[in-house]
Each structure stands twice: as structure tokens, then as C-alpha cells.
């Protein structure tokens, strides 16, 4: 990069004697420009940022220099930074937008720039907003999410993926920002992820995650086997998909005066006593997990005691 002496002589031929003539030497010193950076590398691309690096020029050791990074999109929106490092993160970019990036070496003492090295990159789609669980049942979950606000006018869908601890995985694609995940296993933890997918390229955004545990299965059909003036014999089918899961049953009954009682029992059937004669009662039974107290949806039946 230092000044390099050069000597110039001008030679010409005399038309009369056809002899070459040479001028006195003239000396001048010129300084060559800085070497450009090496190849540009994109290590990660997100909706609003890009991680960029490049190789330092090997023949610039001992020469104070920096790098100027410039990027612009198709709207000719241009930004530039200067850095001592050979990597940087370009942030505050627009999703699903093509950017042209150039990097040049800049001499610190003169600000003289090298030729630029260029690369083109397209940012990805924005991820969905926060995931919300509005209802959880034994075999289904209702899920919703906020649409990305900066994706208007860009055709896209959402991919919803869920898996349990057994790594049983399923996935759906939807245009909506809500979905009901069904055919789940009771009392099972699921990890749910949602990402935005561009319709024209199938390119996916980063995923947004949430974890949920399905509830216990409700009991089967309730049966009244005998009705007396002050008691009733009640039975129900145990849920078939709760084997190996410690649980009990909560039995609740009430009459038209809203006089309510409740018991928790392992026994099936169960006799409910101390009822009022000639009174209509509603009974509900739900499954209760022993370790968490989480209840299933209730199963109901009504009857009237005898006079």
C-alpha cells in the first residue's frame, strides 16, 4: 500500500532522420489501492436480520483498515456501516425482501476504498405471534395465534406440528390462525410448534412453541340400577385409555334447590344416600388425576327419587 516509485521515459522517432529520441526521465510515485475482502458468507437468514462474514485480505497485514458494509433492497432503501471486524449482523430488515450486500476495504488514513465484493440474499417470512391455548380436553386442544403484522400482501400459510414424549409427530397446514388438534392421547404432554410458510417457495419462518398436557378421559356412560326414596345406586364405565394412570372419580349430585354434595371415590358402583324423597337430582361424574387433581369433562345423568 506504500508509495511505489515509478520512472517514466517518453520515446519518439524523428521523421527526418528516422532516429529514436528519448526524453529525460520523469519520476512519479503512485500508491495502489487496498485489497478487497475475500468471499462473503451468509451463515443465517431470518425475517429481519442476516448474519454476514467475510475473509480478511491476506496482503493487508500491518495496514490500518476497516470494512464498509452497504445493503439495499429493491426499493433502493440503502444503509451502511463501518466495522473493524470481519463479520456483522444486519438487522431491522424487511421480511421476504431481496437485499444486495457489498463489502469493501477502507484505508483508515485516507478513507480510500477497495473494489466491493457483493452478495444477494432474500430474508425469510416473519413467524406467527404468541400461541394461545383456549381449551384442553382428553383428546383435543384448541390452539390460536396472532398473524404476523408485516406479512400483509405476501401469500402464506401456517404449518402446525405437534409431538409427544414418544416422538409421535403430526403436522397440518392451514390458512387460518387457529386450529383444533384432535386424536391426541389423554394425560400426555405435547409440544406444539407453528411457523409461517411462503406459498410460492414453501420457505418456512422460525417456529413458535408452546407445551400443553391433555386432560384425563371422562368416565363412560352412567347407569342407575336402583332408585329408592333416599338412595340411588350409580355405576359407570371406566375410561379404557387411562390404564396405568393413577386416578379417582368425583361424583357430584344436586337437586332443584341446588343442595349440592360431592365425594371422591375409587369404588364403582357407588350408593348415594341421604337423598330427599320425590326429588329430582342431577348427577355428574368426572375422572380426577391423583397427582395433579386435574379433572376430565363430566358425564351427567338425571333421576327422581321415589316417594
Automatic annotation (TrEMBL):
<dbReference type="InterPro" id="IPR050991">
    <property type="entry name" value="ECM_Regulatory_Proteins"/>
</dbReference>
<feature type="domain" description="Fibronectin type-III">
    <location>
        <begin position="36"/>
        <end position="126"/>
    </location>
</feature>
<feature type="domain" description="Fibronectin type-III">
    <location>
        <begin position="218"/>
        <end position="307"/>
    </location>
</feature>
<feature type="domain" description="Fibronectin type-III">
    <location>
        <begin position="127"/>
        <end position="217"/>
    </location>
</feature>
<protein>
    <recommendedName>
        <fullName>Fibronectin type-III domain-containing protein</fullName>
    </recommendedName>
</protein>
<feature type="compositionally biased region" description="Basic and acidic residues">
    <location>
        <begin position="14"/>
        <end position="24"/>
    </location>
</feature>
<dbReference type="Pfam" id="PF00041">
    <property type="entry name" value="fn3"/>
</dbReference>
<feature type="region of interest" description="Disordered">
    <location>
        <begin position="1"/>
        <end position="24"/>
    </location>
</feature>
<keyword id="KW-0677">Repeat</keyword>
<dbReference type="InterPro" id="IPR003961">
    <property type="entry name" value="FN3_dom"/>
</dbReference>
<dbReference type="InterPro" id="IPR036116">
    <property type="entry name" value="FN3_sf"/>
</dbReference>
<dbReference type="InterPro" id="IPR013783">
    <property type="entry name" value="Ig-like_fold"/>
</dbReference>
